Hints:
The protein is of the alpha/beta class. Helices cover 32% and strands 21% of the residues. A 6-stranded mixed beta sheet has the order 3-8-7-4-5-6. Strands 2-1-9-10-11 form a 5-stranded parallel beta sheet, sandwiched between helices. α1 (17-25) links the parallel β1 (5-8) and β2 (28-31). The protein is elongated, with a radius of gyration of 21 Å.
Amino acid sequence: MKINKILISQPSATSDRFYELANRYGVEIVFRPFIKVEGLSAKEFRQSRISIPEFTALIFTAKTAIDHFFRICEEMRITIPDTMKYFCTTESIAHYLQKYIVYRKRKIFHGTTGKLDDLIPALLKHNKEKFLYVVSDVHRDGENVLDQNKINYTKAVMYRTVSNDFGPDEPFDYDMLIFYSPAGITSLLKNFPNFEQGDIAIGCLGAATAKAVRDAGLRLDMEAGTSAQAPSIVEALEIFLKEHNQPVDAAS
């Protein structure tokens, strides 16, 4: 099985190594997400009956969550007080707040691992706060660790993941498909209800996505994020291409 063209279901490359692999093994890599994010309207959010001014602290696990929180506040004409506290799972997400607030004048806390567990000490230190946890409709469950530590929080869905449909004239001539979430598999089957895998290789990131591939009756050819050997897609892809493609120099 020689791989000539790969679809990676992300909007853009997360590492220059993707392009290095493409050049080394003579493959074309296309970044084309199967899913996209759209925000809830203010009218839709009101149906949750969540009153944002009642909260004294915010929990963010993604930059997208920050964008949609401030967008909804603007649409609902809600002014965020200077006393609001911000808890972010990474420093990068925390710094992104500068897009909307005067960073140095706010109380901002962040973790290092990207996991909510890492924020628990800070959340417990400020356990008198009333936290609003901003999420999408399909999010990684973080409630367990918050519940276990008796954090006073409310989950607020402010954006959702939907299928990024293929147009009727859009080519689908890939030798390999790589997915980052179960929602991507759902979108694949929505776009191509009669999809037959045949010789098309399928790769994925994480155990949940791997399960979604198998539950859909598809063959999983490459798995990343579940072993020390291939912790990321780019590392798993390098191993896969070594097995199926000759390096361009060697082929010549």
